[in-house]
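Subject: Sanity check before I submit

Could someone independently write out the structure tokens for this chain? I want to compare against mine line by line before I put it in a report. The sequence has 279 residues.
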Amino acid sequence: MPKSQPTDSDRFYGAVFMTETPMNDSIARRTVLVATGATAATLAVGTAVSRTQPSPTTNAADTADMTDTAPVAAAAVCTLTREMTEGPYYLDGQYVRSDITEGKTGFPLKLALTVVDDDTCATISNALVEIWHCDALGEYSGYVGNNGHNEPDSGTFLRGGVLTDSRGVASITTVYPGWYRGRCVHIHVKVHVNVTLTSDGSFTGGTELHTGQLFFDEQITARVGALSPYSANTVTRTTLAQDGIYDDGGAASGLLTLTALGSSPSAGYSGTLTLGVER
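---
Independent answer below. Compare away.
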């Protein structure tokens, strides 16, 4: 699978990474992230609603016969925000699948990402939510070795996406990401609509509506990072506060709501966020 070529600002030399560069105001597409949880109680567009948020365990395969007039995201405030840099490690043509782990070691992460229209907050079904991120040792598939660790490279691990279901929810199983030089722990995300699924399990065509990043609570990351296999990462970790991309904007800047799946970090976490896009 061909690699996309890093721009000059994204290039690295040897094993030393350059920090990803935030998007310029003039090229940032208008998108929104919808704040969820106890502090989000009203709707910025239209009237307030009382439906509850979808469960993180929602089945993303249930997409048939739904339209873009799906239920409005509940108890939410639509907040406009800029897109965030794609970074140098995006690869085209990844698989459409709900589990992207490919046997990679790490603590389970169950993502439930809800896609809504930023003008109406109505959920969008059949949108393809695509993610990619590094493994516990900070290595991206297709670029293994760039963070100083040697391991097999399938070119596809920890990459892929799913169609949103009738409630606009994309449910993806992965592992808690590791880290690499100059960046905090994060996941890259894109939202596409009107894609065509291909016979090889991938997708083609469509329109890309959003490129952004998902971020993790620093205290949880510190606990995860102290345990194997993350503790084998030899690179000094950049904290959330030190990161040059995350702007401390909370959910409006991609900060996930994380819920422990057990009493130990090794049991994993669920991660939820509502992502609004400009149609």
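---
OP: Matches mine. For the report I'm noting this point. The helical segments are 218-225.
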